[in-house]
Every structure is written in structure tokens, then in C-alpha cells.
Amino acid sequence: MDYQTILATICAEVQPLLSQGKVATYIPQLAKVSPRHFGMAVYCLDGQTFSVGDADQKFSLQSVTKLFALALAFSREGDTIWSRVGREPSGSPFNSLVQLEYERGKPRNPFINAGALVITDILSSRFVQSDIAILQFVRMIADQPNIDFDATVAQSERETAHRNYAIAHLMKDFGNLHNPVKTVIDSYCRQCSITMSCAELAKAGSFLAQHGTVPWSGAQILGASSSKRLNALMLTCGTYDAAGDFAYRVGLPAKSGVGGGILALVPGELAVAVWSPGLDATGNSLAGTYALERFTTLTARSIF
Amino acid sequence: MDYQTILATICAEVQPLLSQGKVATYIPQLAKVSPRHFGMAVYCLDGQTFSVGDADQKFSLQSVTKLFALALAFSREGDTIWSRVGREPSGSPFNSLVQLEYERGKPRNPFINAGALVITDILSSRFVQSDIAILQFVRMIADQPNIDFDATVAQSERETAHRNYAIAHLMKDFGNLHNPVKTVIDSYCRQCSITMSCAELAKAGSFLAQHGTVPWSGAQILGASSSKRLNALMLTCGTYDAAGDFAYRVGLPAKSGVGGGILALVPGELAVAVWSPGLDATGNSLAGTYALERFTTLTARSIF
Amino acid sequence: MDYQTILATICAEVQPLLSQGKVATYIPQLAKVSPRHFGMAVYCLDGQTFSVGDADQKFSLQSVTKLFALALAFSREGDTIWSRVGREPSGSPFNSLVQLEYERGKPRNPFINAGALVITDILSSRFVQSDIAILQFVRMIADQPNIDFDATVAQSERETAHRNYAIAHLMKDFGNLHNPVKTVIDSYCRQCSITMSCAELAKAGSFLAQHGTVPWSGAQILGASSSKRLNALMLTCGTYDAAGDFAYRVGLPAKSGVGGGILALVPGELAVAVWSPGLDATGNSLAGTYALERFTTLTARSIF
Amino acid sequence: MDYQTILATICAEVQPLLSQGKVATYIPQLAKVSPRHFGMAVYCLDGQTFSVGDADQKFSLQSVTKLFALALAFSREGDTIWSRVGREPSGSPFNSLVQLEYERGKPRNPFINAGALVITDILSSRFVQSDIAILQFVRMIADQPNIDFDATVAQSERETAHRNYAIAHLMKDFGNLHNPVKTVIDSYCRQCSITMSCAELAKAGSFLAQHGTVPWSGAQILGASSSKRLNALMLTCGTYDAAGDFAYRVGLPAKSGVGGGILALVPGELAVAVWSPGLDATGNSLAGTYALERFTTLTARSIF
């Protein structure tokens, strides 16, 4: 089957699942999105693109932006970032303070909230406005200058950010946050509010499938080794507490968000983005995870 | 560089590291092995083999046998095993009882001791003697009938198995152990005592690089999908608490043991085994991990 | 009001509560006891006794025996026991392994199972048969030679002792258990099976109300200072995870058991025992706790 | 011995201990206090007072104020406060976030920081300025209108309050903080900065020794039952993680602070305050704890 047929097949298969997930409800803007949306887009490294369903509709990236913030920080600061954030799966709910306290303020990895706040802090030390720096980075790798924050979402994030404030203050207490807590939280909330479509997201992630180099421009974001290492991190830590299960079922490096988006990579071949707002119990898109599982089966693509 | 040159290069490079690791000391038989050993062997799916150093010397497989026990159980029982053991990284020391208690006796994955005991329990329900069944399975996939237990090691394991007894009794209390505790522990201790050489280990693991089929015989141990899924588990959970770091540095599915052995896979191409008894702080072979990191760099092989 | 009137008042008041508790069900012998039993007995240091309801019916002491085992060990070994068991409230479920692992095999206090096993271990090192030693000690302080084990209960305890086995093996692994695990568990299960009536229990505990000296015989079990210290331990740790709440409501040093018995002390005045098999969510006798709360109110007795 | 002789004896005995404790260092104002200070004062319910050493020197009350804030809140709100804060010992370091997260934002007791913040929040809902309300309450029960905040200490507390901010935000996230985080933290930091002398502190606490009634004025702060219950809380939770050990050694209800002060009660007889800035590993005054242990021994006073 060609990719377009495969996407159409998957889109038909997931329909019964769309009613089973639960949309995130902690902010009104996410709560009011219909769980019946489904979109999927493939960006092949040779430039071919395929898509199905709501692949061009914008959605809130949320934690998927953690990947881009990390890529930006890693490209600028290199391996020094690992002195402040670990590279191990968390093994407990993604916003838990327990592990953070036991491990003296050093987050387990850059994809849990604590780790993402450290990355934001690192970027806040380097850029005048770290949220703008991330936005410009995303616009560049997606080749799409109109990508933007959603100010309403960002504002709601800020108003419900008590747990993130708790995490940030705890890290501040341990000396692992250098900028003011409010600065870091504000930037983080804006970063999370970025909206993109599946088609844009697949294109934006394609440099990680091509060993750190943007396919259409040849710009090198990361060295090949660094890019592979980010892929490894995505596989072991990219989908909250379900990373093991996700690797077992899907077998691709991926990063998910509570907006229902997931970006996954077939190294050397393509990037694939999927969006469906209904989440499973682990906070990952229910239909999206299934769609990617079917994608690796139907394309016989897996890194294993 | 060809594989033989690469192995020779790595063997030269690791020499300074051999004095840095610490051999496991919890049983006398492991404590008295010199940390200066180093062996490495590659088994290509086309039948070619390469090796260097102490690649033909037998060593204690220890936790590497958890992989073979799992493969055997998975081949016989299929996905039903996941009702009794999870597929997520543990995120805490590999023999911790804490997580086991919080999660009501269901171990996080089959590669921590608790999970391996559940797998042994499953095999003990199916086979008259689960340890013999595992041994025969290993002999078959390694094509080497003289592979055997080390009775002295098994006896020492039994004598120092208090923590494993604690784990087993706790799971028994939660109803997740069906056979007598002593039966399971005895079998587990014998299984851990299996000795093999790197050359044998690489050959034994090659079916996992060839999608579940033994390369030289064509025997199908696992379906392609199941085999890929075991690879995913190895990557996310195969190297104790360092799985994230190992994936970051090495980027291959692997299973390690405190005897200093590590088996790693390049899916579709080869299996590689390394042995050096000096361990790092996470319980993985220090020189062995470095050797595999260099192997993926020099061969430009990585799953990412 | 005189004590007899007070006991009668309380007995009338608790009747509606008798249907609200839940009897322990982990062994059949406890599960089949009717929750409608209620007995209460007071032993004044001047020798006067008062009782009401089922005060002469035997019941399973269970964890109340931990107090007598501790008193015996403390009387023989003195403060050296505190090198192996702590004196702090546990702050988590009474049979939790978590804290034990974090604290390297040293139990928080002698009234949680782990701590009681250490005390049994200490007694097992000193006496040929620690369970017999405890029984003889209890017979002596109760002035009642026919107090005995319940062999059926002891056997059931042994058969369901997986969690205690887990705890004991974990402590063995940490080096904090000197005798064989099976020896300690067997003794502990027999100790727990001792049966007594409220009248006997109040008399047996009276030496702790009289600063360590048996009121009717003048025999000194513990020095005054040691006796006060056991009282302090009872107050802070004697009623499982509800010690704070129990102190708040009742305000007396006490030790409870899942058989539904509670022994409490008014230092310098009396010992009071209550029995009602229905337990509250914390494992303490529901009607018994209420009865003691009323007792301190109606007698205007409290240590505070 | 009379009280004055006893105090003099104790003062002589503690001299060698004064060099062994460590003063709190997290804010400069505490760090620069000499550990050689020692003061002790007794306030008998009949109005007699005794004192020794630096009994009239002001020191920073710190956590001792948690007792007065609780008494004020309890006197106004009664048992409704227990829906928002527990009554159990914490069993883990006094500022730990772990337990707070496991228990969904409900602190274990009012004497750990989390619980004290909830009490401050309760007071902030009732009074225009909760810190002023606490100060006026303390002035009243100490009969000393010149008791005041230390503005420098309060400012330093605020600047290093990251962990308290983390705790407050976490409770806010769980819905257990009704006023703005900053309001509560500011009030709490001011409350902690109150300075008093031992003589003032003993007098201020005397109503808790007299069943809730101020001895010299007859004003009833709390009912007898409520007062006894606060005593019980002090005993089980008043000295951080060392409450069990403190009860074992001293055997009196007490509340300590990192400024080196401890207030203890002999119900029905007296209140005793001690101050020595050198702390032991649990955060309690090293010489102060020893002094109280000696006090109960020499006076033969204990609640047990």
C-alpha cells in the first residue's frame, strides 16, 4: 500500500475510537475541543507529503513543544544541559514532585514538566525572551512564519499553573532554576500554547528524521549524533509514563501532548504527525497512539 | 572499517577503562573474577562472526538470562503475560520493593528482579522444571548443547537471596505468584547461573535481530511483531535504571547482567555481545557499555 | 459516677456502634467472630476491678502482644534494643515495606510488624523458645497460668504470613535479623495467637500503670523510667497509623490489635482493657476506641 | 529540690552541650546567633516563676508560633479545621512534599510547614491581617504588649521561602488554600519572626497547662477538652520528626522551633520554656531537649 492509502485506511479504522478518549479539561480552551477530530500527516525526507482528515487544522501543541525547546537548547548549549536535567524515564506520574524531591531538584528528563521548566530556564538565560526564541525556531523548522501562540490558552495555563509553580519553586530551592520563577513559568505557558497543524508538525519534526538536518534547506540544526540521541530520548521518555508501552506497541521515537497531538519519526525516512484530542488514561491521544501502531504495522516500519 | 578492525580498535581503546569498574561482590564467585577481562563478539545474520579478546571465555550470564526466560515465556503464553507484569521502565533501583508495593504486586517490567520472578513463575506453571526448560531453550538458540548452569554460583545465589525472597513473598501476598516461593527462587537462582561466552551469547541472541527467526536454522521462535516488541522492551528497560542513558549513548536494544555481559542487537543485521566484569554505578559493565557506544559510532549503526 | 456506673453507661452507649465496624478477615478464625461483642474491664492499682459486657470472654490478642514482647525484651536487653528498632511513628500503613527499605531495614518502632519481628528476633536470640518465653511472661503479669496460644489461629497466621515473610527477608538482607526467618515468623505467629479476656488483659497491663511494678506482687518488671518510656511509645505509636488521632480523642497510652482488643493506661491509677471485634478503617476497634474516649471524658482522666 | 535549684543544676549540666549543636543557617539572622546561649523559665499555675541563664533574652520563635496560630484558629473555628489538616505524625522530614502529594494536598498535622500554612490560610480568611491577629493573641496570652515581629527576619524568611512557596502552590493546586499564595506566605513569614524570651514564652503557654484558661486572668481561650487535645497534638507532632524520641525521653507535650526554643507543659502544674540555639540533627534544640529531659527526671514530672 502507498502512504496515502495507508492513511485513509487508518482514518477509517480509528473512527470507533474517537468517542472513547477524554479531552483534557484543565483549561477551558482544551475542554471545548471535540474529541471526534482526527488528522494525520506524513512528511517524507524526499519532500513528498501525505495527509488525511483534519491534518490542516491547528491544535494546541502543549507538551510537543518540549521537544522543540529541548532541540533549541541542545543545539546551543550541547551536553552541558545534562548537568541540570537527567535522561531517564520518570516511572511515575508526569507531574510528580516526589521524584524531584528525592533527586534534589534535578528532573529525570526534559520531557516531564520539571525538566521542561529547566530547559526553559536555560533558554531564558540565553535569550532575551525564551518564548519568542522557541516560536521563531519552530517557525523556521516548519517553514511557516504564521505559526503563533494562542494568547487565550497561554493565559489559562498561567492561571492554573499552581503545580508548575510548585515544581519551579522546589527547583529554585534546590538551586536548579536561575531565573525568576515567574519569568520561567510565563515563558513556559506561552511556549505550550503554540498551535500547529499535523502537516506543519510533521514538516517541523523532519530534521530529527534526517539526522539533524532540515530536509528542504540543508540547514544543520543538530549534529547526526545529537539528533540520534534526541530520538533515543523521545523513545524512552517522550510519551509520559507510557513510554515503555508506546515503544512496545508503536516502536518509534515520539513526543505527545495533552492537546492530542503526537509527532513520531522513522529515522532516515519520514516524520509523521497525528492529532486526535481524546486522551487515554496516560495522557496520550488514544486514537493517535492506535493510528501510529497501525502505521508501523501497515508500512512495516519500525526501528526494531 | 570492517567489523574485525572495529573490534580490534575498540579492544585497544577500552584497556584504560578495565581498571575503573567494580566487579559484583554479593557472591564470592563473581567477586573473584578479574575486572581486566574484555571480550566482544559479533554474529551477523548472514552467518559471519567476528570476535576479539576473551570472546570465548565463559562468564556468568546473570540478568542476561532474563531476556531468554522472557522470550521463552512470551513464545508460549503470548500477550497474556502482560496481565501479570508491566512494560514500563522502573525509574528506581532495580531491586526496589517500593514500586512493587505501590503497584500492588505487579512488577514494572520483566527485566527487574520482581518481573523476572513472575516470568519464572509463569514458566514454572508450564514446565516440570522451569530452569531446565530455560537451559534447553538457550542451548537450542545458541546451537551449543554444552551450555550449563554453574552449580556453585546457583548455590551462592540461593544463600544470598533474601531480597528476592522478600520480593517473591510480597508478590505472593498480592496474589501474583502461583507456585511456592521456594520453587520459584530456586529455579531463578539456577537460571541466573548459566554461563556462556560472548561468541555463544551473540549467536543465541541473533534470532531477535532477525525478527524472531533463528538465522542458521530458520526456526521461528517468535513472530516478527513479537520480536520487535521484545527489542523495544530491551531498549526501554534492558539496562536497569540506566536504560535512558544507555539508549542515549548506545542507541541499541540491549540486556545486561551483573556478571559484566551485555547482549545488544542491530535489528536486521547482527547481534553483538560484550563482556567485561567491571561494573559502573548502575550495575552495567563499564567497559562493555563504552565498547557498544564505540561500536555504534564506528559502524554508524543505530536504530535512531 | 463510680467506675461501675461509668462502664455500664459506656456499654449502653456503644450498642449502636457495634454494627458499624468490620471484623478482620485475613484469617478465618477472626472473620467468624461476631462484631456485636463488647467487653470492658478496669484494674485499679489498689486492686479493685470493674467490668461490663463480655469482659470475661477470651479473644485473640494479636498486636496487643507486641507490647508484652517489647516489655520482656526491654526488661532483659535495656536500651540496646534501640540500635535495631526506632521509636518514631510510622506515618504510613502499618505493614508497609516502603519505609523499611528507605531506612535500610531498621523499623520505625516496635509496634509495626517489622519492629515486632525484630523484637521477636531479639527474644529468639536470648530464649530457647521465644514464643514460650512471651507466653510465660504474660501468664506471670496476668497472674493467670491458663493463658495460652490458639493453635488454629497460629496455624492460619503462618499460612497467610507472606507479607511478614517479605518484611523479615528484607530485614535479613539488611542484616537486621539474626535468627532464621522461619524461626522468627513461627514464633511471631504463635505470639499473636495468645487469647485473653479483658479482665485478664487489664490486670496484665497494670504494671505499666504502676511505673513498672506489678501491683499485687510488688515484682519489678521495668524501672520507673523505662516504664514511663514504654507509655510514651504506646501513645505515639501504639494504635497503628491512627496514633495521632487516638491521642487527640482518647489521650491515653494504648496498644490495639486487629482482634478488636485495646489496652490503655491511666498512669498511677489504673489499666483499662476493651474488646469489640468490629474495626475502623485504621484497624483499631471502632467501638473500643469510642468507649475509651468516653471513659476519659466521664472519668475526667487524661494524661494531658 | 525546689524549681530554682533544679534550673540551676540543669544550667550547669548543659554547658558542655552548648558547643555540640548547630545553629540554623538558612537565614543570616539565625546564623549569627551564638550557640552558647542557654535560658530556661518555669511558669507555675499558681503564679510562681523561676528562671536561669538567658531566660529574659529575646529569640526568634519560628515554629513555636505554629502552636499559637493553631490555638487561635482552633478557638475560633473549632473542629472544622480538621477537614483541611490532619492530626497524625508526619514520619518524614518536616518540610517534605512527598506525603503532601500522596495525600492530595492535606497536610499531616498543623505543626509541619504545610499544615501551618493551611492554618495561616484559615486565619487569613477570618482576619483582615492574620499576622497581626496572631501577634495580638500572643501579646494577650503572654500579658506583654511589647512582643513584636522582627522585620529583618521576616524579610529574610520571605526571600528564602521557595520551598514554602512550592508547598503552598501544591496545596493551591489541590484546592486546599483559599487565599492568594503570596498573602499566606507573607503572613506566615511575619508570624515566624515573632521574638520572645523564655520567661514570656512560658507565661504565654501556661493556658495550655491549665486546661485552656489563662491562669492569671481566668480568660478561657479554649475549652478543657480542646486544650487537652492540643496537648496531645504537641506530644505526637510537636517536635518535627523526633516526636516519638522526644516523648520517649522527655515525656511532655512540647513545641519546638529552629530558633532553638522549646515550650513544654506539665498539665495541671506548669509551663516551661527553654532556649538554646544549637540544634540537633532533627532540628530541635540539642541542649534544650536535654534540659527538658533532666527537668522531668529531677522534678519526677511526666505525663506517663
TrEMBL record, chains A, B, C, D:
One of its GO terms (molecular function) is glutaminase activity. It comes from the Bacteria. Pfam families: Glutaminase. The keyword Hydrolase applies. Substrate binds at residues 63, 113, 157, 164, 188, 240, 258. Keywords: Acetylation, Hydrolase. It catalyses: L-glutamine + H2O = L-glutamate + NH4(+). Its EC number is 3.5.1.2. Belongs to the glutaminase family. Homotetramer. This is Glutaminase. It comes from Undibacterium arcticum. The gene is glsA.
